[in-house]
Amino acid sequence: MKRVLFIILCISAILNQNSAANRSHYVSVNTLNFDAQINGVQPGDTILLESGNRRNMRISNIQGDSIHKIIVTNSGGEVIIENDNWHFGFVLSNCKYFRLTGSTDNTEKYGIRILKTGKGANGLSI
């Protein structure tokens, strides 16, 4: 009986630790480069991009795992990326086990829109 209780307590502690560890990392509209490793993003966390207009956006070093992916999404409205002279729009580099989703609000058709980039540039690079 003590052994079963001990196992249940251990499992409960692990589950509580994982759920408590999931944090949100808010990226302001003025931030154009976000390094997930430097900012302490862990598997299961969420990266929230503040709504508004940006020239471009680069996110690097997202390192989720096969069970706890890192979510990248907009927050508070549409994220609009638009420039006419930059060599990229939205870049995700050195990333694995993540989910890029366009909308957290069901009233929006698109949460992240890439309208324009410099001539010959990619709108989205992963």
Itemize the secondary structure elements and their pairings.
Blueprint: H1 2-21, E1 24-27, E2 33-35, E3 46-54, E4 57-60, E5 70-82, E6 88-93, E7 98-100, E8 112-116, E9 122-125
| Rg, Å, rounded | 18 Å
Shape: globular
Per DSSP E runs of 2 or more residues, the count of β-strands stands at: 9
N-to-C CA distance: 51 Å
Q: How many helical stretches? A: 1
Given helix and strand content, the structural type is alpha/beta
Strand content: 35-45%
What proportion of the residues is helical, as a percent range? 10-25%
Overall pLDDT level: 85
SSE string, helices as H and strands as E: HEEEEEEEEE
Q: The biggest beta sheet, please?
A: 5 strands, parallel
Provide the low-confidence segments as ranges.
none
Assembly state of the chains shown: single chain
Write a brief caption for the model:
By secondary structure, the chain is of the alpha/beta class.
List keywords for this structure.
globular; single chain; alpha/beta; 4-stranded parallel β-sheet; 126 residues
Give an account of the 3D structure.
It is a single chain. The chain has 126 residues and is of the alpha/beta class. Helices cover 16% and strands 40% of the residues. It contains one helix and nine strands; from the N terminus they run H-E-E-E-E-E-E-E-E-E. The protein has one helix at 2-21; strands at 24-27, 33-35, 46-54, 57-60, 70-82, 88-93, 98-100, 112-116, 122-125. The strands form two sheets. Strands 1, 3, 5, 7 and 8 form a five-stranded parallel β-sheet that branches. Strands 2-4-6-9 form a four-stranded parallel β-sheet, with no helix packed on it. It is globular. The chain starts with a helix and ends with a strand.
